[in-house]
Design goal:
single chain; alpha/beta; Rossmann fold; 2 domains; 9 helices; 13 strands; elongated
Length: about 350
């Protein structure tokens, strides 16, 4: 509650003066007489002064224009359009990334980092593309980040179910980086988009022998022509290994070369797309990578604040008027010679 004209509140001194004002009683005056000692003092003048003071106080409050409302913040400009392009090849099962609880596989680390990234960009439109041998636009660009997180959770669950049933996964078992980037660019073609970026996350070497292979360098150059930057993230620990079970015993075996990202290739893709290359060898490093990308892709926004207020003077005005009218009507009775 605020007041549109708060200086009128200085008028609250008037009700105080009305309470202190001693009004002479009406009627004839009599000389002192012994019988008057039995009369009770009248409280009529006090009641009358209270009615006058309350009425004046209400009128002063009404003149100060009490207002009720809220402050509304309006975003007049949206943020960036970001497409997350995430590798789902079989090598994402490798548990060479570590966290506070021990070893964790690449899929879990990447999806957790992606969820944190999405949560931290409330003003951006974010979309999802998953790829391996094939590519799928799972979620188009949207401000509904709860839906984006649901797609991440659902895709991880479905991918793990496929692996648990000894299947290759949702989109095969190879790595077609160019197809993933090209699929994401379908959602970044509008010239009216203010900020556009593709965040490529992969853990393996590009499989050039695929029948539908797309050159990622060509896709990255096309992205830059559209005004979209391509940031590449290589996930995998070159000094680590993967756990395997032999004869009931778990052991850590070295990783084959094709199970690790190719830094030179990913750096070339990022350079062709006007972006940067990052390497993540553990989960903490992956978190740091997303923080650096977050700094590289700041969210431009213009915020306007306005006050939504409405006057609430009618009730104190009506109450003050009623109290003063009541005081005027009861004046003869309250100020008369009442025993």
């Amino acid at each position: 509650m605020t007041f549109g004209s708060p200086w009128f509140l200085l008028g609250l001194i008037l009700p105080l003066l009305a309470l202190l004002w001693r009004v002479p009683r009406a009627g004839a005056a009599f000389a002192p007489f012994p019988l008057l000692t039995n009369l009770r003092p009248s409280r009529g003048p006090l009641v009358w002064r209270i009615l006058i003071a309350a009425g004046l106080a209400c009128l002063v409050v009404a003149a100060a224009r009490p207002q009720h409302g809220r402050t509304i913040t309006e975003r007049t400009q949206a943020g960036r359009d970001l497409m997350l392009v995430i590798d789902l090849s079989g090598s994402m099962r490798i548990d060479d990334l570590g966290d506070a609880n021990g070893r964790v596989d690449r899929l879990a680390a990447v999806f957790r980092a992606a969820e944190r990234f999405v949560t931290g960009r409330p003003d951006d439109r974010i979309g999802l593309v998953f790829f391996s041998a094939n590519a799928l636009a799972s979620c188009p660009l949207t401000y509904d980040h709860a839906t984006v997180r649901q797609f991440l959770e659902r895709t991880e669950r479905q991918q793990r179910t496929q692996w648990a049933n000894d299947q290759q996964g949702l989109l095969g078992d190879a790595t077609n980086i160019g197809l993933g980037v090209g699929t994401a660019l379908k959602y970044l073609r509008s010239p009216n988009q203010l900020g556009k970026a593709v965040i490529l996350i992969t853990d393996g070497v590009d499989t050039r022998s695929l029948p539908g292979w797309v050159d990622p360098l060509v896709a990255a150059r096309h992205a830059q022509a559209l005004g979209a930057r391509v940031h590449a993230v290589g996930v995998g620990n070159a000094q680590g290994g993967m756990t395997q079970t032999y004869g009931g015993r778990m052991t850590v075996v070295p990783l084959p070369r094709e199970a690790l990202p190719d830094p030179a290739r990913l750096r070339a893709i990022a350079t062709a797309g006007g972006g940067e290359y990052f390497s993540a060898g553990d989960e903490a490093g992956l978190k740091t990578v997303f923080e650096r990308i977050d700094a590289l892709e700041p969210t431009p926004r213009t915020v306007a604040t306005r006050l939504d207020r409405s006057d609430r003077f009618r009730w104190p005005l009506a109450l003050g008027t009623a109290l003063l009218a009541l005081a005027l009507a009861l004046r003869p009775r309250l100020l008369g010679a009442t025993p």
